[in-house]
Amino acid sequence: MPVVLSNSGAAARLTLMATSVFDVRPATNRDAKAIAQLHNATVKEAFKGMLGDLDIAIMPLAERERYWAEAIQYAEPQVQVALHGAKIIGFVGYDRSRDEGTPATMGEIWALYVDTDFWGLGAGLSLWDAALEGLIDEECTHVSVWVPLSNDRALRFFELAGFKREMATAKTVPIGGVKVEEIRLQRALG
What we know:
The protein has four helices and nine strands.
């Protein structure tokens, strides 16, 4: 992912450049299978890095495909795909926050996954740019995302995109039969 070094006070920090590298478009029903395949593959790879040899149960492909087909059909969440040529290499799902007690102006990144062959090349940034634009169009003023604490890559990505950790939100959730510590990150939009 493109990175620029900027000085901010006494400490230098990395921030994401706001330029998209890959084409992004709204997902169609025909994309549900490719999204499901990509979702399962990237979840497996991400958790392998976080949990080592511990195997995580992945949602059956047909069930995952039904989930994404329904999400695309009803736009809940809204789904965009990143392309390399005609191949889907990533996707983002975003909408209003699902967290209880949040205002209607709080958006949420429900999912953001990129093919492992394209990690670090800007596809995630292109998807984030699309979600940011969509959330602003929906008149959201803030956005949140839940990330496993052991997923250093995702935490680094969202922090470079301006998200801040909300330490009081840390919780343990079951994912594929494994207990995982998650934390919510949040940032203002606009």
